[in-house]
Amino acid sequence: MSQLMLYNLGHASNAGNDTNNNANTNSSMEDDDSYQLPTIYRCRAPIASLDCMEEFNGVESGVHCKVSTGTKEQLLTSCISSQSRLQQPSPGIRYRNLGKSGLRVSNVGLGTWTTFGGAGGPTNEETAEAVVTLAYDSGINVFDLSEAHSGHKAEIQLGRILLRRCWKRSSYVVTTKIYWSTKTEGRGLSRKHIIESVQASLARLQLSYIDIVMIHKVDPMCPMEEIVRAMNYVIGKGWVMYWGTSRWTPVEIMEAYSNCRQFNCVTPIVEQAEYHLFYRDKPELYMPELYNKIGVGLMAWSTITIGIVSSKHEEGMSSFLSRSSYKNKYSSFSWTEDETQSLYKEGSELKEKPVEEEPPVRKYSDKLRDVCALAERLGCTFAQLAIAWSLKNESVQCLLLGASSIEQLYESLQSLQLIPKLNSTVMTEIERILENKPSRPPMVSTLALR
Question: Is 14 helix (H, G, I), strand (E, B) or coil?
Fold first, then answer.
């Protein structure tokens, strides 16, 4: 027994010696000292994207300028004078893939409607350049344009700003829209109109390509096949990288996707939709379903974040709830009227009820007053709470912010630090105040309808 144990110990200690356990080994190989065992290479998973590592490290080449430190005046001066992106983006800035594409965008983007003169924004190009520069230096890489809002002037001014700043083209994403309206001469979404609009936008922006072109509203007189083939053509030419939709219904998006699959065309990657505390059905019910099924992401905007109405408590109730404010102040943008129908659906129903019932405007004003009180308890403004609440929804991959001044943009960016404070208790309190959590209607059998 003792000999057997000694043999086993010796065998274990000399497991690498071939002469003790392999009688068939070549003698020349045993005597050759230069012989080495073959190296075993373990498999490694490659790094998918270096941008992902930058998110964790928070380091990027550029100037040393932190948003969270220093006074606001020093911050604005240093950011505007810098020629490159901040070493560390603003706290709360995250980068996500838009839809199920490989395009990475910041969780907030700059909607240039108010920046370039729309809805009472600044007409001074120097002020607009300061806003765009602060957005870029803070980590925002999405700049959204639309000829329906601010016209061709926005594309011209943004093109000049990008040309002067000399930023790396791969560091920012420019989105624009092809607008269909019966009030303009170039109406419709024909192949001719789409191609001419893309070429004109490229000339105004002075860019070699546009990152995303969105179709603003569906043309009922144009076949969907013609629209998707035209978008596939401009992408094939290299003028556009991706295409998306704006203010399309889920049925229309599915129709476009089906046509793209049928005719082997590039599918849309994003839908731009309205989303705020009082408009929730489409972004919360239908957009997650479209994302999971066909990979269409959500780029959201709201009347508060984009700066259409005031964020102050006194002015906010009247301008956000009064339908006449849209007609009087923004009569040229009549497309906003049908977007606010859901706010007054309950009001039309209550008109048929007895007079002693509370009027609908009063009910919404009470909700808004309670939300403002909650914002005060959290130490923020109503607009900041609205931005943080929208970004709390995981379906929102990019939320567009509007700013007519650097102070307004700075205030909006601070709302990103409020997102961790919106825990389950706060979100439950908001739901209790709003009482408008969307839910799908119950399934009704066709036999029961007979």
Answer: coil
437 located within any domain: no
Q: Write the CATH number for 276.
A: 3.20.20.100
The answer as to whether 293 is a domain residue is yes
Q: What are the φ and ψ backbone dihedral angles of 357, each rounded to 5 degrees?
A: -70, 155
Q: β-strands 95-97, 104-106: how paired?
A: antiparallel
Structural domain tally of the chain?
1
Helix (H) or strand (E) holding 261: helix 250-262
Q: What are 375's two structure tokens?
A: 């914002």
> How many Å apart are CA 319 and CA 430, to the nearest integer?
21
* Average pLDDT over the chain, rounded to an integer: 76
Phi-psi group of 264: left, alpha or beta (phi > 0 → left; psi -120 to 50 → alpha; rest → beta): left
Quote the CA–CA distance of 295 and 191 in Å, as a whole number.
25
State how beta strands 142-144 and 108-111 pair.
parallel
Element holding 240 (H helix, E strand):
strand 240-246
Residue 123 sits at the vertex; the CA angle it makes with 118 and 128, to the nearest 5 degrees, is 90
Name the residue range of residue 143's domain.
78-309+391-416
CA distance 181 to 172: 29
pLDDT, one tens digit per residue, over 93-151 is 999 999 999 999 999 999 988 888 665 556 688 999 999 999 999 999 999 997 665 56
Residue 122 is predicted with a pLDDT of 60
- Evaluate whether residue 54 is within a structural domain: no
Contact 116, 158 (CB under 8 A): yes
Provide long-range contacts, Cβ within 8 A and 24+ apart, for 117-126: 117/150, 117/153, 117/154, 118/149, 118/150, 118/154, 119/149, 119/307, 119/308, 119/330, 119/333, 119/402, 120/404, 121/150, 121/307, 121/402, 121/404, 122/404, 122/405, 125/157, 125/160, 125/161
Distance between CA 325 and CA 389 in Å, rounded?
A: 25
Task: Dump pLDDT digits (tens) for 39-91.
Answer: 443 443 333 333 443 443 433 333 333 334 445 555 555 544 544 455 567 88
Radius of gyration of the chain (CA): 29
Closest CA to 363 of 317, 328, 411, 409: 317
Residue whose token pair is 């036999």: 447
Q: Which residues contact 421 (CB under 8 A, 6 or more apart)?
A: 378, 388
> Rounded CA gap, 295 and 100, in Å?
5
